[in-house]
Amino acid sequence: MAESNGGTKVIGDLEYDLLAVLKNKSDAVQLYDQYIQDAQQADSQPCLELLQKLQREDREHAQQVRQHLQEVMQKGKM
Q: Residue 9: is its pLDDT beyond 90?
């Protein structure tokens, strides 16, 4: 949880959690580009398809988290 110098919370726990999840999903989506390239170089179609699927799903999950985060930031909760 992010806190200011006085110990008062800068953002709520839920906002912080959603931001952390969004960052992790965003990082994963970018990393999949390298993994996909590796699967292509290895000429592994099953691995390529799996990695592309996982990347799509993480991209969708990131979008869902982003929408939830926007709600929480506007209303303080969902």
A: no
